[in-house]
């Protein structure tokens, strides 16, 4: 049940100004690559079809490939499936679905929970306690 609740708060939060605050928290922890990947995939899904193949390759190179500059923590099977998806003749908006779901799940269960308990978030959510 808590996973469902986290998901309900997590996704809308990222589409609003909250992603900047969450990013600031992740930067302090040196772990912003998961959020950067998640947001890059969201942008990719809304790309024009003629630009999808190039964007998919860039996202793969930056986040999914072994030894990528901002490599996200994914299992080998997900990496292989994602590579197969972007190398298929038709790059579509679903190419990163599995990798994005796994990354989101990690954030929901780890860094996002820490963020919700951080002073950074609590000061914003409950200013009356701090001022």
From TrEMBL:
It comes from the Eukaryota. Residues 18-125 form the RGS domain. Transmembrane segments: none annotated. It holds the Pfam family RGS. InterPro entries: RGS (IPR016137), RGS_sf (IPR036305), RGS_subdom1/3 (IPR024066), RGS_subdomain_2 (IPR044926). This is RGS domain-containing protein.
């Amino acid at each position: 049940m808590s996973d469902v609740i986290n998901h309900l708060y997590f996704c809308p939060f990222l589409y609003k100004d909250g992603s900047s605050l969450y990013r600031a928290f992740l930067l302090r922890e040196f772990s912003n690559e998961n959020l950067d990947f998640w947001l890059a995939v969201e942008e990719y899904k809304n790309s024009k079809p003629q630009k999808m193949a190039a964007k998919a390759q860039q996202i793969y190179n930056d986040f999914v490939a072994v030894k990528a500059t901002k490599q996200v923590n994914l299992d080998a099977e997900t990496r292989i499936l994602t590579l197969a998806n972007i190398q298929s003749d038709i790059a579509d908006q679903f190419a990163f679905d599995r990798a994005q779901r796994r990354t989101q799940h990690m954030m929901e269960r780890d860094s996002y929970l820490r963020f919700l308990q951080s002073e950074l978030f609590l000061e914003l959510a409950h200013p009356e306690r701090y001022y």
